[in-house]
Each structure stands twice: as structure tokens, then as C-alpha cells.
Specification:
Blueprint lengths: L2 E4 L3 H10 L5 E4 L3 H8 L10 H4 L4 E4 L10 E4 L14 H11 L7 E4 L7 H14 L8 E4 L18 E5 L2 H12 L6 E3 L3 H32 L3 H8 L21 H11 L5 H11 L1 H15 L8 E5 L14 H9 L5 E5 L5 H8 L12 E6 L4 H4 L3 H6 L1 E9 L14 E4 L1
Bound molecules: nicotinamide-adenine-dinucleotide.
The site of nicotinamide-adenine-dinucleotide has 28 residues, from helix 1 and helix 4.
Length: 423
């Protein structure tokens, strides 16, 4: 079978790379800069190695003509939300239109992008049928196989995460299942139908979002009750069925976005998803809560906030990942910057050129940070887990405050004159 992967981001590149170990794969993207980098063996997302990118079986292309004579299309383009938190399916529609121009009898089109239940058949399928003049299940088949990769996580990888597969007919399901099982060692799960697979993906992230929201709400309550959240969680975790979630910042383009896809669909059918939206509201409000806390504490100290020098450790949306899209640490930066003297940003994972280009921010070397009044640790990158109290004292004034949002600060620092505030 000739296989093409459309969209070579965090997901598509890993899928294409895995399949290219077995055969040639057409790797299609509209971003020419990304393609040039991949051709040189450079994946700025840091997920695929240079050797894998250059092994010769991946045919990187932005030329639509290369999508001719393909039997099996995999679409993995972004599915973001707009400024009103509504699904933005424009890239998915665009990719579907592209594929529709080359679709021929016997082909299978599998979507990997996260969507709301029903989107593949209600939005993508009509585009494929209209553009190709072909009919589903008579001429071609449809599949949906959501992705569970976790950027920055080297233990849960494309190969060892079980993959859900689904299709518009049994024969296509067998083929899709075989394709994925040839590269996913953990195997596959055959969902009842496409809608079920779409719903499964979107609730995985919704559940995670809600669990974190609950702990964030508890963390805010415990501040008022003068109780240490991490100590409470440590104690409660000794019960066999207590779920081990930590307070934190939910950003990026999956956990903080996917629930909105589900709530959009819920509202479309007249259902009011109260719990899901409450969780979203709490998690979205965390940067404001943190900045308000900083403001309040500095005011209590009797020092003008506008004279404060701040070090912000971590700007990407999550640990060990270079992605700055929908980054909550970045939101904290934007909220705090107008109120303080200066904020120095440092991050060992971010792509410095991208941070400069997109946000006009300089990524400082950790060793070049001055002693600040306020140090915010916004990410638990593996480098930050290794920070000693000495390292932190060197970048924080003796009477300063460290805002430890990811519980990485070692306990002995708490004995020093530096105040440590944990989320
Ligand atoms: N990143 C993750 O951790 C993750 C995990 C599971 C699921 N997902 C889902 O997978 C999908 C893809 O996410 P991602 O993180 O890989 O996105 P991404 O932003 O990293 O990359 C998407 C790529 O698609 C390309 N693209 C956009 N429109 C295109 C088009 N019309 N034709 C061809 N290429 C096009 C972009 O240039 C980009 O290179 C999304 O629906 C996302 O929610 C992501």
C-alpha cells in the first residue's frame, strides 16, 4: 500500500516516521520551512531523531501531486479553538479538500486529529465525497484513529501506547488495524464505530482536565485555610483509590482545548455540560490567580510591585517540551510584565528563535539570570528537578520569594530567608 501522512507536526511526524521503518511514506505538509528542516534531519519538536528523519524512506513534500496514487491517507492536522473557544476546523477541512482531489476507488482515509464526536463523518466526509465525486463504502472508506502521544514523555511513545482504531466498514477496519499494528507494539483497540473513537479521545483529555481543575480548586481553597496542598495530597494519596493529580497550569493544544470540542457538540444538541465547563473555567483562571497572589503578597510586604525584578523559569506549556502554544507560563508573563520592573525568562526546552520571533522574548541562559526579588518556577522540566537550593539562592535575593508552581523546590530551602510559596 502507498501511504501518505498529511500534517507533520507532533503527531503526524511520529506516525510517518514509525511507518517509514517498514516502507516508503509520502510525508506532506504545507509548511515549507518545516519541510526544509525535516529534510536536514531537524525536528524542532524534539520527538524524532535525525537518523530516523534521514533514513531515506520519508518523502517530504509540499507538492500535492505527490498525493496521487496513494492508497492510505492519514490526516493529522491541528484542530485548535478560536477566540470564543469554539472548534476551528478550518485546517481539517482544508486537508480534507486536498485529499479529495486525489482520492480514488479503493482508498482509505484515516483521521488522527482530535475532534468532537461526529465531526469526521459530519464535516470531513462530505468534503471528501464532494471533492472526489466518490461515495463512502462504495468507492472509498473512512477511518478514525485518535492519537495519544505525549510530547516530551520518553516513556509513553507512539510504539508503546495502545491505539484506538475505527472505520466506516469491517473490511477497512481490518486494513487500518493491520497498518497500525505493524508499527504499534502495544497493539490496537477496535472501537465500535468512528463516533465512539472520537468520543473516547475527547473524554480522555476532558477527564484529565477536570481532575486537575478539582485539585486546582482545592489548592486555592487550602490557601485560604492556610493548609499546604502538597502535604494534603501526599497524605490523601495513601488511600488506594485516591487519584494522584497535582495542581498546575493546563495549557497547550490538547487538554485545555479538547473539552471545548466536546462542550461545543453538547450545546449543539441542547445539552448543558456544566461540570466540564466549570473545570475549564478554573484551569483557565490559574494564571490570574497566581498573578493576583504575587501582587497581594508583595503589597503585604510593603514593597512597590513596579520595582520588582522577576525571574521566570519555564515558558513552554508543559515540562520537557518546546511548545509555547497556549502556554500558561507565557500568560503569567503577559499579565505580570506591565506590573513589575522586569521579567527575565529562561527555559532549557524552548526554541529561543521561535520565542523571539513570536513573542519578542529573549531566552536567557540560567547562569545569566540576576538575583531577583521574585523567582517563579512555572515548569518541572527535568533540568529544574535537579536544581539545588544553592542554585535557587543564587538567582533569588535573600528576602525574595520563590513561587514554586510545580512543587520542585527542595525542602531545605524553606528553612532559608527566601520565602517559598507552593501552589
Ligand atoms: N501534540 C500532541 O501531543 C497531540 C496528542 C494527541 C492528539 N493530538 C491532536 O493531533 C492533531 C495534530 O496535532 P499536532 O500537535 O501534531 O499539530 P502540530 O501543530 O504540531 O502540527 C500540525 C502540522 O500540520 C500542518 N498542516 C496544517 N494544515 C495543513 C494542511 N491543510 N495540509 C497539510 N499540512 C497541514 C502544519 O503545518 C503542521 O506542521 C490535533 O488534532 C491535536 O489535537 C495532538
Amino acid at each position: 500500500m502507498n501511504i501518505a501522512v498529511i500534517g507533520l507536526g507532533y503527531v503526524g511526524l511520529q506516525v510517518a516516521s514509525a511507518l517509514s521503518k517498514l516502507q516508503n511514506v509520502v510525508a506532506f505538509d504545507i509548511d515549507k520551512k518545516r519541510l526544509e528542516e525535516l529534510k536536514l534531519g531537524k525536528d524542532i519538536s524534539g520527538e524524532v531523531t535525525q537518523d530516523d528523519l534521514l533514513q531515506g524512506t520519508l518523502h517530504y513534500t509540499a507538492d500535492e501531486q505527490d498525493l496521487k496514487n496513494i492508497d492510505f491517507y492519514i490526516i493529522a492536522v491541528p484542530t485548535p479553538i478560536d477566540s470564543d473557544n469554539n472548534p476551528d476546523l478550518s485546517l481539517l477541512e482544508q486537508a480534507s479538500r486536498t485529499v479529495s482531489r486525489y482520492l480514488s476507488v479503493g482508498n482509505i482515509v484515516v483521521y488522527e486529529s482530535t475532534v468532537y464526536p461526529g465531526a469526521t463523518e459530519e464535516v470531513c466526509l462530505p468534503i471528501l465525497e464532494k471533492g472526489s465525486g466518490l461515495k463512502l463504502n462504495t468507492d472509498f472508506s473512512l477511518g478514525y484513529s485518535p492519537e495519544r502521544i505525549n510530547p516530551g514523555d520518553k516513556s509513553h511513545t507512539f510504539k508503546n501506547i495502545k491505539k484506538i482504531v475505527s472505520a466506516s466498514n469491517e473490511k477497512a477496519l481490518d486494513i487500518i488495524d493491520n497498518v497500525y499494528r505493524s508499527v504499534v507494539e502495544a497493539g490496537t483497540f477496535r472501537a465500535k464505530d468512528i463516533k465512539t473513537a472520537e468520543a473516547a479521545k475527547v473524554i480522555e483529555n476532558t477527564q484529565r482536565d477536570l481532575n486537575i481543575a478539582l485539585i486546582n480548586e482545592l489548592a486555592m481553597l487550602f490557601k485560604d485555610l492556610d493548609i499546604e496542598t502538597n502535604e494534603v495530597l501526599e497524605a490523601a494519596s495513601t488511600k488506594w483509590n485516591f487519584l494522584d493529580f497535582k495542581p498546575g497550569l493546563v495549557g497547550g493544544h490538547c487538554v485545555g482545548v479538547d473539552p471545548y470540542y466536546l462542550t461545543h457538540k453538547a450545546k449543539e444538541v441542547g445539552f448543558n455540560p456544566e461540570v466540564i465547563l466549570s473545570g475549564r473555567k478554573i484551569n483557565d483562571s490559574m494564571p490570574v490567580f497566581i498573578v493576583n497572589t504575587i501582587e497581594k503578597q508583595v503589597r503585604e510586604m510593603g514593597v512597590p510591585l513596579e520595582e520588582m525584578v522577576v525571574n521566570l523559569l519555564g515558558i513552554t506549556f508543559k515540562e520537557n517540551c518546546p511548545d509555547i502554544r497556549n502556554s500558561k507560563p507565557l500568560e503569567i508573563f503577559n499579565l505580570l510584565q506591565p506590573k513589575v520592573k522586569v521579567i527575565h525568562v529562561t527555559d532549557p526546552c524552548v526554541v529561543s528563535e521561535e520565542l523571539k520571533l513570536k513573542n519578542n522574548l529573549v531566552n536567557k541562559d540560567f547562569n545569566d539570570l540576576p538575583k531577583a526579588d521574585i523567582t517563579i518556577i512555572a515548569n518541572n522540566h527535568k533540568q529544574y528537578l535537579e536544581l539545588t537550593s544553592q542554585d535557587l539562592m543564587e538567582i533569588t535575593k535573600p528576602k525574595g520569594i520563590i513561587y514554586d508552581l510545580k512543587n520542585v523546590v527542595v525542602k531545605d530551602l524553606i528553612q532559608s530567608s527566601v520565602k517559598v510559596w507552593k501552589l
